[in-house]
């Protein structure tokens, strides 16, 4: 029996990276349960626990920068191994930390090390997958991340009931397993294929106006998306529904992604990326804005389905565009900048969403989400069109040099 078309034609090296990512995400326990762990096992107040979680988020942003820099200098394969080993050590340190000062330091290190591997793994995909298949490959990596996280959320609750030490131990063990799998499963690149990593880097990334515009739009998209985890639970609470209702509502997203995202990615891959990204962002913003009209579990669930379609359609597209714009000697930096733009939502999304929801009110927040979605959606086709026009002369120059 042949595999579905969406899974065919990708190189073996991609699937090594894919399985490593899935393995790591299947046991992503600590970050989702961090606040609960800190307020119960470590006796912190809610504001103190929020401070530790914010420091973790700041570390995640820094980790993207470090991961991109390392991928361009020591190579993505070694960076994945090193990042995963450091992440395992940092998780053990966080589990052993006592007192707010040590917990803040440990959370910062855990946040940094948790995100080092992401730009390197994306750079690996860019290196080993043909340009025509990159959107599909990045989409399948997105699927692995979300499928693994859905399982880990359910399994983490069970392990936490047995003791939080298990969360830290298993999470650390799978980090090590992911790093070893990628390092052993991928061949050492020949010397001529190894990056020199002596020029370009982040200077090259941020001197390209097309890339900067794309990163800003990506950050805007991520800030809108983050309200699913900030404002949506508040809306469910204000509808006088139990806490378990939010778990059921957000689970719809995980189930939808697992069942439909690969198929949706394969379908939208036939259309121009700019238009797909615009439509996906409109669906995301509209679906989240409709949260303000929901009162029952079924109505909240319907809004989740709507924005989940947009999330699935977007999967892989931005990373593929970033890869098309990147130079081979600085692919890690380009993917690091993309990861950083997405990660900013973990720090600023909760701050902005909670402040607007509690201040001007839910109506202003959901209206703002819709407006932001429309503005970001309008920007994607313009930036992608300009980026495509900018890459055509460069491609022609490369052909000319090769031919000469």
Please give a structural write-up.
This protein is an all-alpha fold and 404 residues long. The protein has 2 domains: 12-187, MFS general substrate transporter like domains (Growth Hormone, Chain: A, Up-down Bundle), CATH 1.20.1250.20; 202-393, MFS general substrate transporter like domains (Growth Hormone, Chain: A, Up-down Bundle), CATH 1.20.1250. 80% of the residues lie in helices and 0% in strands. It has helices at residues 12-26, 34-40, 46-73, 76-96, 100-114, 117-128, 134-162, 164-185, 201-206, 209-238, 243-268, 273-289, 297-314, 317-325, 331-358, 362-403. Helix 3 (46-73) runs antiparallel to helix 4, helix 4 runs antiparallel to helix 8 and helix 12 runs antiparallel to helix 13. The chain starts with 11 loop residues before the first helix and ends with a helix. The relative contact order is 0.14.
CATH topology label of the largest domain: Growth Hormone, Chain: A
Shape by Cα distribution: globular
User: How many runs of DSSP E, i.e. beta strands?
Assistant: 0
CATH architecture label name of the largest domain: Up-down Bundle
Count of alpha and pi helical runs: 16
CATH class of the largest domain: Mainly Alpha
Radius of gyration: 21 Å
Uncertain segments are 190-194, 393-404
Query: What's the mean pLDDT score?
Result: 83
State the order of secondary-structure elements, H for helix, E for strand.
HHHHHHHHHHHHHHHH
The CA-CA distance between the termini, in Å, is: 47 Å
How many domains is the backbone divided into? 2
- The proportion of residues in beta strands is under 5%
Structural class: mainly alpha
CATH superfamily of the largest domain: MFS general substrate transporter like domains
Major sheet: none
- Share of residues in helices: over 70%
């Amino acid at each position: 029996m042949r595999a579905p078309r969406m899974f065919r034609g990708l190189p073996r090296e991609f699937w090594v990276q894919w399985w490593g990512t899935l393995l790591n995400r299947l046991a992503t326990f600590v970050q989702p349960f961090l606040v609960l762990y800190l307020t119960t096992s470590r006796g912190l107040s809610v504001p103190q626990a929020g401070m530790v979680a914010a420091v973790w988020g700041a570390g995640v942003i820094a980790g993207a920068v470090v991961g991109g820099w390392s991928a361009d200098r020591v190579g993505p394969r070694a960076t994945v191994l090193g990042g995963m080993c450091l992440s395992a050590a940092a998780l053990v340190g966080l589990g052993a930390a006592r007192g707010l000062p040590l917990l803040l330091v440990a959370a910062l290190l855990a946040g940094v090390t948790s995100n080092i591997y992401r730009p390197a793994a994306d750079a690996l995909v860019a290196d080993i997958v043909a340009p025509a298949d990159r959107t599909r490959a990045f989409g399948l990596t997105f699927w692995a991340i979300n499928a693994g996280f859905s399982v880990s959320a359910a399994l983490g609750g069970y392990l936490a009931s047995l003791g939080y030490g298990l969360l830290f131990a298993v999470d650390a063990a799978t980090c090590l397993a992911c790093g070893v799998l990628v390092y052993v499963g991928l061949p050492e690149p020949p010397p001529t294929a190894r990056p020199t990593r002596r020029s370009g880097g982040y200077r090259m990334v941020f001197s390209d106006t097309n890339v900067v515009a794309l990163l800003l739009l990506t950050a805007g998209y991520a800030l809108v998306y983050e309200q699913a985890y900030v404002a949506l639970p508040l809306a469910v609470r204000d509808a006088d529904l139990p806490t378990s209702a939010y778990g059921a509502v957000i689970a719809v997203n995980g189930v939808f992604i697992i069942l439909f995202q690969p198929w949706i990615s394969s379908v939208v891959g036939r259309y121009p990326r700019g238009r797909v990204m615009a439509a996906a962002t409109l669906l995301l913003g509209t679906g989240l804005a409709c949260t303000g009209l929901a009162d029952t579990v079924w109505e909240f669930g319907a809004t989740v389905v709507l924005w989940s379609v947009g999330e699935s359609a977007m999967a892989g597209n931005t990373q593929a565009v970033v890869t098309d714009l990147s130079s081979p000697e600085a692919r890690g930096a380009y993917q690091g900048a993309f990861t950083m733009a997405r990660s900013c939502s973990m720090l600023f999304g909760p701050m902005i969403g909670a402040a607007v929801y509690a201040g001007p009110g839910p109506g202003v927040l959901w209206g703002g989400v819709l407006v932001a979605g429309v503005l970001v959606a309008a920007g994607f086709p313009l930036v992608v069109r300009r980026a495509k026009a900018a890459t055509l002369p460069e491609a022609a120059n490369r052909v000319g040099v090769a031919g000469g």
